[in-house]
């Protein structure tokens, strides 16, 4: 396998094929004066660009990454809304912290942050090594670690949808290229090649859900776990028909089914690009690292407000951490991530 190029109009951590392993790192910047902190941020972004470009290349300097092309490292770097506001950075005006939602039980020590780095690769080893290089480069440039989180996917043949810990195919109804230009990537102008990442660490009651009979699980989700097809259709990629009715007049995809409440039909067709991972942090702490990319985080807020109110999945879920970041446009071969931020 060849290395996935680091440089490009868009960061490879969003555009490349979803890799089976991920590691997220969040950092905070010191709070001195805005001028000094802007300088620190420039230094951190330059250090991250150098470190990530080298680690992703075919010839990384670190001996632990040699033969590195096969590890297929991809990355993305994002800016948190609080930092953007404090340093008056030029980010899309829609970048803002999420509101709180009913049922949230967020741990601030695992949430938010000034800078977010998501690493993805073919294997965990690469991520551990690169995470260490990233943390060292960020530290040397003045950023302090805030939280880290690792996640994984099952081995899945290319082009097929990975399953989550409830056993469902997760990521089926993602936007195609045309829809992504409208709903995922930034508006025309300096932010055309940027996007916003919404991250939620959602604990799942895997045993509780598994205890439901299969037919009941499929009604909760609105899709069949076996093949991923919507209850209104026969194949995984059939569009869920939220208007389809049973002979008795009830909806085929029930009123509180997850895919009904998450349907883009309630949002003027708005779609987010979901690239979630599972996590396993101990016997009672497993779940989903929900990772979704969108032009405007209000797209997430609208869906999550509906889900929080009445998703049939809710008895099996707890939102335990949250973060939002503006995912910067990519860097040119002679450029640095974040050149758009300074006006
Ligand atoms: C669809 C699982 C949380 C938004 C789906 C599907 C599954 C799923 C199995 C159907 C297959 C697919 O299209 O990918 C889960 C689980 C969650 C969770 C297990 C929690 C642990 C969320 C959250 C949001 C969300 C927090 C956003 C607020 C969506 C959307 C769709 C979807 C937009 C596609 C709907 C469509 O276009 O048909 N989810 N999800 N999900 N989910 Fe979730």
Automatic annotation (TrEMBL):
Dyp-type peroxidase C-terminal domain ranges (all copies): 161-330
InterPro entries per the UniProt record, alphabetical: Dimeric_a/b-barrel (IPR011008), Dyp_perox_C (IPR048328), Dyp_perox_N (IPR048327), Dyp_peroxidase (IPR006314), TAT_signal (IPR006311)
Keyword annotations: Heme, Iron, Metal-binding, Oxidoreductase, Peroxidase, Signal
Cofactor(s) needed for function: heme b
A GO term for molecular function: metal ion binding
Keyword Iron attributed: yes
Domain Dyp-type peroxidase N-terminal positions: 11-152
GO cellular component: cytosol
NCBIfam families: Dyp_perox_fam
Family: Belongs to the DyP-type peroxidase family.
Record-linked PANTHER family: DEFERROCHELATASE, DEFERROCHELATASE/PEROXIDASE
Protein name: Dyp-type peroxidase
Species of the source: Streptomyces palmae
């Amino acid at each position: 396998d060849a290395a996935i190029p680091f440089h490009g109009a868009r960061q490879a951590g969003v555009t490349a094929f979803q890799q089976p392993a991920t590691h997220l790192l969040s950092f905070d910047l010191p709070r001195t004066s805005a001028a000094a902190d802007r300088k620190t941020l420039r230094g951190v972004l330059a250090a991250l660009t150098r470190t990530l470009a080298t680690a992703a290349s075919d010839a990384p300097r670190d001996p632990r990454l040699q033969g590195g092309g096969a590890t297929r490292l991809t990355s993305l770097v994002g800016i948190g809304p609080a930092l953007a506001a404090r340093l008056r950075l030029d980010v899309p005006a829609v970048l803002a912290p999420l509101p709180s939602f009913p049922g949230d039980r967020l741990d601030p020590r695992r949430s938010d942050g000034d800078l977010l780095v998501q690493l993805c690769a073919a294997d965990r080893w690469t991520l551990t090594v690169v995470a260490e290089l990233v943390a060292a480069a960020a530290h040397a440039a003045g950023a302090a670690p805030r939280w880290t989180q690792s996640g994984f996917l099952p081995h899945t043949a290319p082009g097929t949808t990975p399953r989550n810990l409830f056993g469902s195919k997760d990521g089926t109804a993602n936007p195609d290229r045309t829809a992504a230009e409208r709903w995922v990537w930034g508006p025309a102008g300096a932010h055309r090649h940027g996007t916003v990442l919404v991250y939620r660490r959602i604990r799942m009651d895997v045993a509780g859900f598994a205890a439901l009979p299969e037919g009941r699980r499929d009604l909760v989700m609105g899709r069949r776990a076996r093949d991923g097809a919507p209850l209104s259709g026969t194949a995984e990629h059939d569009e869920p028909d939220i208007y389809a009715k049973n002979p008795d007049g009830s909806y085929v995809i029930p009123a509180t089914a997850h895919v009904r409440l998450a349907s883009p039909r309630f949002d003027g067709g708005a779609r987010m690009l979901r690239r979630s991972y599972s996590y396993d942090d101990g016997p009672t702490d497993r779940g989903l690292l929900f990772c979704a990319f969108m032009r405007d985080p209000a797209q997430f807020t609208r869906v999550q407000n509906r889900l929080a109110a009445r998703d049939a999945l809710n008895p099996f879920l707890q939102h335990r951490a949250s973060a939002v970041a503006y995912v910067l446009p990519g860097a040119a071969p002679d450029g640095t991530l974040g050149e758009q931020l300074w006006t």
